[in-house]
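INFO  loader      accepted 1 record
INFO  loader      residues=250
INFO  predictor   begin
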Amino acid sequence: MKPDDCQVSGIKRRRESTVSGERELHVSADQQLSAVSDGKDPVNNTLKEITSRSALKAAPELLGWTLLVNGVGGRIVEVEAYCGSDDPASHAAKGETARTVAMFGPPGHLYIYRSFGIHWCVNITCQPPGVGEGVLLRALEPTHGLDTMRQRRSRHAVDGNISKAVSDKMLCSGPGRLAQALGLNDSYYGRDLIEQPFQLIPPSGRVEYETTPRVGISQAVERPWRFVESGSPWVSPARFKKCSSLRTSI
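INFO  predictor   done
INFO  writer      dumping tokens
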């Protein structure tokens, strides 16, 4: 285990979206136009740079990004890091299997699995191929396509009419709800996030976050590898005492 990869100190931080180091990501309309003309996309490059790192470094950097699938989605406000062979709670702890092929693949792709045979859970792969790390998406602040989300998340729908609506705060709160609201399932397994139908938009400013232990695991339960946007009403209702004071993504 590398100390800088799998250790997080307990302080509250405020994070700025960055391309590298301390340089902020500001992409003007002219730069976007230039990127299209020369075949380069600064946002996609930034995403690849973030996900090429360890899951622990990538997880807080993904907070505040907006994830859209066919135009439906929202801001990422809660994630968990899973650190491969050094992490007994990770699906990758015992090496590559038929189930975890995508997790050991290139960074910035989707590793999707079914939890307890019921809910789909969505992870973004991290590190170079062969390492097997990922960031689990646990909650979004819904911002785009809320009507579609409400329809997908309704408890009962007859002829397209919702008979029992779900609170907007519960649309994407928790990994299973998030996947259902975005329409994600195993048909998206291994897909690259920089390709259609996905769109990722970087945060416009700083993101404050806190850390807690991860949710719903039986091993390595003490590790504070769950990252939540500070003060967000959209995070999942996990009952854990926070492990850190305020942090800022850097």
